[in-house]
């Protein structure tokens, strides 16, 4: 059985707390626990708590924060390539993205660094700027993230495509021979906010509001914009994280090279992403499905679309946020 489906051992420190939290049946093997208003699988929750308590952000840190299934893998590849472009000028010859999955190159705080029971990782030796990623909601970030000048690049995606991507992903990760999650049940769960790091809308809203208050600290992005104007958005990200492209680089085609290297077509066809697995057991290929905007209309009924649109309008429109 892959690790991500195995019973997870929680340290004594967090066992008592977790047992007091509201609990729901999860989308995979583990239960979901509601902490600070958001739902986390057991394996992730220990990491959430530990990271919240122990992670010490530095002014120079860059944090990729995403709503699950909104293009995390893609954004990790973009920013990794951006920050390392001087080190690997020949992008199609010896670049780490050609042989390593983006999740290996930019690990999650709560799922990778802080996952181990009773172990606080030593991250101070990582050269600056340190690049981390997380699905943590705004309210659960470690205080140091808010107190320092570290930068947050936040990515989300329209809720219909996010939901369909999540539904496919979790069914793909189920053990062969076990029952798939039905679209209807999963849809109800998602609408009720009971999804990975859900409610979806609260996650987005937490970062949206802060990005309006502190645009130099939080850059708010949508998957749809990355698809529509990749070169424009990549240059925006480069400026935001403090490594803008020079005129020479633009003339030499560095922006286009990064986009090509990180494209769905290129990444999904690499051997490492067709055959490899994360250390927690998820196949790399599960992170590359179709990579399109609007694919959800091939799965959702008209009623489902109306329902999700209505929730989104009700929760987000008053804050000036639309998808
Ligand atoms: P995670 O939050 O579990 O890390 P994440 O990478 O956010 O997953 O989501 C995967 C989605 O991003 C998939 O969407 P889909 O199910 O609608 O197809 C995946 O195909 C898409 N994706 C992954 N890499 C790329 C890429 N290079 N370009 C565009 N989309 C991508």
UniProtKB/TrEMBL annotation:
Domain Sulfotransferase residues, every copy: 60-318
Listed Pfam families: Sulfotransfer_1
SUPFAM superfamilies: P-loop containing nucleoside triphosphate hydrolases
Keyword line: Transferase
Annotated EC: 2.8.2.-
Annotated coiled-coil segments of the chain: none
Domain of life: Eukaryota
PANTHER family, A to Z: SULFOTRANSFERASE SULT
Assigned protein family: Belongs to the sulfotransferase 1 family.
Protein name: Sulfotransferase
Organism: Stylosanthes scabra
């Amino acid at each position: 059985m892959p690790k991500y489906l195995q019973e997870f051992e929680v340290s004594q420190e967090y066992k008592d707390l977790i047992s007091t939290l509201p609990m729901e049946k999860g989308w995979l093997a583990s239960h979901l626990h509601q902490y600070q208003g958001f739902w986390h699988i057991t394996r992730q929750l220990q990491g959430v708590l530990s990271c919240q308590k122990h992670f010490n952000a530095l002014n120079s840190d860059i944090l990729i924060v995403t709503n699950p299934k909104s293009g995390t893998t893609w954004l990790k590849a973009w920013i990794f390539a951006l920050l390392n472009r001087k080190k690997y000028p020949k992008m199609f010859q010896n670049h780490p993205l050609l042989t390593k999955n983006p999740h290996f190159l930019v690990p999650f705080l709560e799922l990778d660094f802080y996952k181990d029971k009773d172990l606080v990782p030593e991250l101070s030796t990582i050269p600056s700027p340190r690049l981390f990623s997380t699905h943590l909601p705004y309210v659960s970030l470690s205080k140091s993230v808010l107190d320092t000048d570290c930068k947050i690049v936040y990515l989300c995606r329209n809720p219909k495509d996010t939901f369909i991507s999540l539904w496919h992903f979790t069914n793909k990760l189920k053990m062969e021979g076990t029952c798939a999650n039905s679209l209807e049940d999963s849809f109800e769960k998602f609408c009720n906010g009971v999804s990975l790091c859900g409610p979806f809308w609260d996650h987005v809203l937490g970062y949206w509001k802060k990005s309006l208050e502190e645009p130099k600290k939080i850059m708010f992005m949508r998957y749809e914009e990355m698809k529509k104007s990749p070169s424009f958005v990549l240059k925006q990200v480069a400026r935001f994280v403090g490594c803008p492209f020079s005129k020479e680089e633009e003339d030499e085609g560095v922006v286009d090279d990064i986009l090509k290297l990180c494209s769905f077509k290129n990444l999904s066809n690499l051997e490492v992403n067709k055959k490899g697995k994360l250390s927690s057991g998820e196949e790399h290929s599960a992170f590359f499905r179709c990579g399109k905007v609007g694919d959800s209309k091939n799965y959702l009924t008209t009623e489902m679309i109306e329902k999700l649109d209505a929730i989104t309008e009700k929760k987000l429109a008053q804050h000036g946020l639309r998808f």
